[in-house]
Write a structure and sequence with these properties.
Rossmann fold; STEAP_metalloreductase (chains A, B); NpdG (chains A, B); NADPH-dependent F420 reductase (chains A, B); alpha/beta; homodimer; eight-stranded mixed beta sheet; NAD(P)-bd_dom_sf (chains A, B); oxidoreductase (chains A, B)
C-alpha cells in the first residue's frame, strides 16, 4: 500500500468502521453471543447467524441492542465483516458450505482448536497449520483474518462488566483488512486491536487459549492478555 | 503435594528463593546476559556459563552485581537453578553434553525455536513438540520447566530501565518446581511469575515470540505480555 518513500504510517491510525455490519457465525454459542453483545453495545450493527434462523432470532432478541438473527448463509450475505465463532468440530464443514455466501467478505476467524483430557486442555494442530489457515484455504474468495481468541465468554456476556481489560491480537495478510478488525476491537471499551503477524503465525495465538485455561484454573480468574510497551 | 481434603493453596504464596544460586547457560548471549543482570541486580547469586570460561568471566565482570563466570559444565554444577539461554541451533547438543552436570537441577528453558525469512519470523516445531520438551527428553534426571520467553533483551540489559513491565509464564510438570521459578521471576521489579500449564503447552508460548517480533516491528516497541484479571 505504501511505497518505501512514503512516511511510516501511525499504526494506531485506524479506519472508521462504525457503518459496517458485523455477522457472527455460530452466534448462539457463548463466545459468539458474547462478541455480538459487546459489539452491538458499542454501537455496531450486528447479525447473529445460526444453523436455524429461529434459534438465531431468539438469541438475538435476548441480547437486545438491535441485534438481529438469521440463518448462517443469510447472515454471511447481509454482513460486511463475518466473525467465525463456530465450534472447531464444525469449522471446516460450515465454511465449505458457506463459501459462496462469504465471497468477498472480510472473515475473522476466532476459533481455537483444542482437545481436552484428564490433564486439561491442549492444542490440536490442523493440517493447514491453524483454524485461520484452514479458513483461508477453504475460502479463496474471502479476505481471511484471525482475532478475538483470548476473550472470556463469561466477561463478554456479563452486562455488569463495563470494560474488557484485554488486547485483541489481529493476524492477516493484508494491512487494510487487519486494520478494519483492529478498529472493530477498539470500539469495545477497554479493548485495543493490535496487529500481531501473518496467518502463518496464527497457530500459537489460537493454542495459547490452552494456557489461559490453566491460568484460570490455578488463579480462579478470567485471564486476558495485554501487550506492554505499546 | 496437597490432598483433596486440604484447603486450596494461595497461588501467590511462593517459596523464598533468595538463597538459591542461578546459573545461566549461554549467558554471554543477549537474552542470557539480560536475565543474569536483572536477577543479580535483584540480589540473586548468579553465574554466567559459556563454552569458554574466559568469555564467561569477561561478560560477568561487565555485568557487575557479583555475577561470576564459569564454563557451562562448572556453571551447571555450581547452581541450584539453571536457565538454558543458548541459541536454538545449539540447544540439543549443549544439553546432551551437560546431562550429568544438570542431574537433579531445576532447569528453566527459555529458548524460542524460530526461523526467519523475508516475511519475518515463524516458529519451528521441534520433534519433541517444543524446546522445553526436548530438554525434558534429553535430561531425564533434571526437573525441567520453561519460562522467561517473552522478555526484551534490550530492556533487560538497559540499566536505566527500573521495572520490567511483563508477566513471566511458567510451565512445568511439578508445582513445587514451577513455584521456585515463579518466585525467581517475581524478584525482578515489575515482573510476576504466573503458572501457565504443563510442558505439553510450551510450544505456543515459545512460538508467540514470532508474534511479538511482528508487534515490535509495527509499533516500534519492545512488547511484553501481561495477563489480566489476576
Amino acid at each position: 500500500m505504501t511505497t518505501s518513500d512514503a512516511p511510516p504510517r501511525d499504526p494506531w491510525d485506524l479506519p472508521d468502521v462504525s457503518g459496517l455490519v458485523v455477522g457472527v457465525l455460530g452466534g448462539t454459542g457463548d463466545q459468539g453471543r458474547g462478541l455480538a453483545y459487546r459489539l452491538a453495545r458499542a454501537g455496531q450493527q450486528v447479525i447473529l447467524g445460526s444453523r436455524a434462523a429461529g434459534r438465531a432470532e431468539e438469541a438475538a432478541a435476548a441480547l437486545g441492542h438491535g441485534v438481529r438473527g438469521l440463518d448462517n448463509a443469510a447472515c454471511a450475505r447481509a454482513s460486511d465483516v463475518v466473525i467465525v465463532a463456530v465450534p472447531w468440530e464444525g469449522h471446516a464443514a460450515t465454511l465449505r458450505e458457506l463459501r459462496e455466501d462469504l465471497d468477498g467478505k472480510l472473515v475473522v476467524d476466532c476459533v481455537n482448536p483444542l482437545g481436552f483430557d484428564r490433564k486439561g486442555a491442549h492444542p490440536l494442530v490442523p493440517e493447514e497449520g491453524s483454524a485461520a489457515e484452514q479458513a483461508a484455504a477453504l475460502l479463496p474468495g474471502s479476505r481471511v483474518t484471525a482475532a478475538f481468541h483470548h476473550l472470556s465468554a463469561v466477561l463478554l456476556q456479563d452486562p455488569a462488566v463495563e470494560k474488557i481489560d484485554t488486547d485483541v491480537m489481529v493476524l492477516g495478510e493484508r494491512r487494510a483488512d487487519c486494520e478494519i478488525v483492529q478498529a472493530l476491537a477498539g470500539r469495545v471499551p477497554g479493548m485495543r486491536g493490535v496487529y500481531a503477524g501473518r496467518l502463518r503465525n496464527a497457530h500459537q495465538v489460537e493454542a495459547l487459549v490452552a494456557n489461559l485455561i490453566s491460568v484460570n484454573r490455578r488463579y480462579k480468574a478470567h485471564a486476558g492478555i495485554r501487550l506492554t510497551d505499546l
